[in-house]
Amino acid sequence: MTRLFAWLALLAGCIYFALPLIGMTEFSLKMRRGVYSLDAYRKVFEDPSFWATFGYSLTLAAATIVVGVLLVVPTAYWVRLKLPQARPYIEFVTLLPLVIPAIVVVFGYIRLYNTSSILPLTGSAIGTDFLLTMGYTTLALPYMYRSVDTGLRTIDVATLTEAAQSLGAGWVTILAKIILPNVMVAVLSGAFLTLAIVMGEFTMAALLNRPAFGPYMQLLGANRAYEPPALAVIAFAITWGCMGLIQLVTRLAKHERAKA
Amino acid sequence: MSFLNISHLEKSFGSLRVVKDFNLDVEQGEFISLLGPSGCGKTTVLRMVAGFETPTTGRILIDGQDVTGFKPNARKIGMMFQAYALFPNLTVADNVAFGLKVNGVPRAEREARVTEMLKLIGLPELGQRFPFQLSGGQQQRVALARALAPSPRVLLLDEPLSALDAKVRVSLRNEIREIQRDLGITTIFVTHDQEEAMSISDRIVVMNAGIADQVGSPFQIYNRPTTRFVANFVGTLNSFEVTVVNSTTLEMDGQMVTMAEPVTAEPGSRITMAMRPEALRLGRADGFETVLPAVVEEVHFLGSVIRVSARMAGTAIALDTFNRPDMPPPSPGQTIEIGLSGKHAFLLDR
Lengths: 260, 350
Fold this sequence. Notes:
The complex is a heterodimer.
Chain A: H1 2-28, H2 39-46, H3 48-81, H4 87-99, H5 102-113, H6 125-153, H7 157-166, H8 171-182, H9 184-200, H10 203-207, H11 213-223, H12 227-259
Chain B: E1 4-13, E2 16-26, E3 31-35, H1 42-50, E4 57-62, E5 65-66, E6 77-80, H2 92-102, H3 107-120, H4 136-148, E7 154-158, H5 166-183, E8 186-191, H6 194-200, E9 203-208, E10 211-216, H7 218-223, H8 228-233, E11 238-244, E12 249-252, E13 255-258, E14 270-275, E15 281-282, E16 290-301, E17 305-312, E18 315-322, E19 335-340, E20 346-348
Parallel strand pairs in B: 3-8, 3-9, 6-7, 7-8
Antiparallel strand pairs in B: 1-2, 1-4, 4-5, 9-10, 11-12, 11-14, 12-13, 14-20, 15-19, 16-17, 16-19, 17-18
């Protein structure tokens, strides 16, 4: 009986999550009257704005990942090694982006870095891109920090560091050759989560007036019928692809070790 | 001047002084063990030599060079850790080559050295394996090769055998000693296992509450402990409260014990005399002039040795005797005679 209820709950859950997606996907295939077609997807892919905004967001996602890794890996490493008492505070700070809405962050940026400020970053495209990258880094911080910190928990950071030091290695070598490779799977998990967040982010990009994928999706949704669900399916595919890559990397890493 | 000189070394963590005025001179090629219970400061001393802890006061000189302010990576020291500390992302060969690579040794020279080191530890065919594919003993051998590869000036061993099972521990400690002797590398070994320290050290530093209580050869430490702590910590000890009769004689439960060395305490004063379990004899024997009755409490058959726990002159004692198939051990409750000699006794005055 309990087993039956478990299966029923699972089935209800599946229906709850899958039905809207199936409905949306089905609707996106109905652009041509009477038959299923990929016309909506073709239209999306033929739109130069799609590729421009997609490429732009992808570039910024890559920049965000680089900044995130450079910021988070040494910080999490240092906190684990030298400042374990600071861990609760660091964790609190990294959680702030989850409770402070992006709109508050971006308005803060605009106030601090507008054209009449000491650092007028919003005055140029590259400056605004930089600002947006920093904003994305902030948004991704809870995920990136947790991933890396979990990765660091699986290795004996202190002893590995001391072993490397006794062999003559400096901090950069230790981070690049010992710590980073050993938390690579965790870093990649954080990186893929960052990618998924950046690709769908709307608020920051729209308010900083940058041609990102999020605002493009919103714009398309406001003016077209069939393309928005097609775009939503594409966005879901990207996110799921990222999740799949996390799984793949995790498995491959184990596989590589077992194989060697 | 000694090769490694540690003078007036102190370390405090807040108000807690964990190492107090620690002094040690180590000759080149010497194998020194720091022995003591948990929290006695032995690992802190080792970590200060390695550069992982900064001394509160004191100096550390290696080959005449003051390294006290040096960073760990500038000290040219090799270290083995209890937890192996092999780099999980690198193969065995890459682990051994790591120190050489960091120090800019050319590739060909590096490869030759790795091959030499792997041969030295008896694992020449395992270079392409990853650490997780090795047993604990193999991992610790690789850690030894990795520590030795850059030809360090001093080798530091931080309880490297503690995580291994008993059999591997014995064989690996002999291997470490053999390699250390062959290479003539100055070595400091931290352990809380007295048997380990006794079996492989040239000298032992027995530490207690941050102080080096006694420094000496294993023979001296065991047979002539200078403090009550050392006597009790190293091996099993029987101690008896005795009365000084004169400069050579002590009175113990009505029996006289003639000491080999002069007694400096005042006649009539009460002092503590100590003897190891193997210094006592079951029954009367030549050279064991003092004989006292004792009641057997327990008998432990340990194979080649039999340990008898008994009560003699109001004191619980332990006596070790070799197993003899023609002579069964006494039974609990039995009254026996125990022979002893002042030649095998020592006095504990602090």
